[in-house]
Write a sequence for this structure.
């Protein structure tokens, strides 16, 4: 490996199990020489397998519900104590929609669920940065990254209210990123990742079709969780010091595609079959 994060200290939110994108980021950050604390909601710590990751990477786990300022304040204080100083990098890898979980259609949401999903998935990013900023916990030229999805810009009907949460999250990255950059020389970016088979991802209706379609549409194919981790490491490294306020697509080229030959071929097969059936029907009459 390249020692890209040698001597750096971080906080990694959102490793639930070995499929989690945050899990891969933790493994890669460890390989690149970083020290970090792992954190997740108390309930996730009970359900997931984070202790395995903690052991493997020599990290401490500090529980924090990202909707609680008190938990986040304790997390940041403890992290600086455990790591022995200010923080160089933070990964926000948190997402959850109660409407998606309960199967509520986008046009008919339970707004209490909407509020909870927004609080967990989007406002939490503001909250995390607000605590880091107030405590002056980030080192100069530090880096904060959150994960997002292209449904923030384009319509993916089954992504439901998570699309709105991601739009808010990306906006917070720009707005907070301005103040964090101006006042503390900290950069803030979001990575817009390909659909990836994880616990959060698989909750979206028709997710397998989603993944297969994106794979065929993207010239380089879908980006995996490990590839997302590699990209994240580059944003935590000193090689990207002046990259900030960006939403960075990490999707094999999907976001700039209109149509691919592979998708067109599939469409034409169906289209021709439909035409043959139509002709048969007509000739019967
Ligand atoms: N999987 C995909 O297809 C995909 C694509 C683009 C972006 N993303 C984003 O990547 C991020 C990570 O998701 P993932 O796919 O690795 O799934 P995941 O389910 O492994 O991770 C989501 C994490 O959010 C945590 N979380 C939920 N509520 C929380 C709370 N109140 N406090 C703290 N943590 C909480 C969960 O415990 C879990 O660890 C999310 O922001 C997701 O929207 C995922």
């Amino acid at each position: 490996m390249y020692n890209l994060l040698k001597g750096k200290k971080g906080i990694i939110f959102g490793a639930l199990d070995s499929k989690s994108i945050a899990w891969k980021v933790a493994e890669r950050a460890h390989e690149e020489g970083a020290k970090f604390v792992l954190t997740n909601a108390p309930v996730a710590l009970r359900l997931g397998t984070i202790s395995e990751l903690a052991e493997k990477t020599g990290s401490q786990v500090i529980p924090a519900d990202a909707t609680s300022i008190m938990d986040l304040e304790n997390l940041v204080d403890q992290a600086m104590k455990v790591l022995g100083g200010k923080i160089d990098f933070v990964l926000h890898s948190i997402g959850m929609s109660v409407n998606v979980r309960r199967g509520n259609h986008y046009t008919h949401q339970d707004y209490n669920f909407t509020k909870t999903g927004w609080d967990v998935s989007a406002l939490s990013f503001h909250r995390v940065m607000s605590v880091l900023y107030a405590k002056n916990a980030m080192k100069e030229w530090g880096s904060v990254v959150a994960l997002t999805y292209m449904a923030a810009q384009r319509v993916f009907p089954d992504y439901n209210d998570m699309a709105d949460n991601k739009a808010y999250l990306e906006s917070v990255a720009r707005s907070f990123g301005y103040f964090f950059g101006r006042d503390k020389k900290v950069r803030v970016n979001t990575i817009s990742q390909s659909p990836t088979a994880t616990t959060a991802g698989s909750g979206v209706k028709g997710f397998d079709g989603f993944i297969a379609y994106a794979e065929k549409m993207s010239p380089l194919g879908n980006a995996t969780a490990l590839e997302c981790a590699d990209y994240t490491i580059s944003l935590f490294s000193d090689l990207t010091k002046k990259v900030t306020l960006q939403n960075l697509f990490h999707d094999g080229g999907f976001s700039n595609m209109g149509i691919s030959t592979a998708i067109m071929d599939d469409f034409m097969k169906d289209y021709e079959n439909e035409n043959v059936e139509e002709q048969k029907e007509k000739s019967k009459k």
Summary: The radius of gyration is 21 Å. The chain has a mean pLDDT of 95.
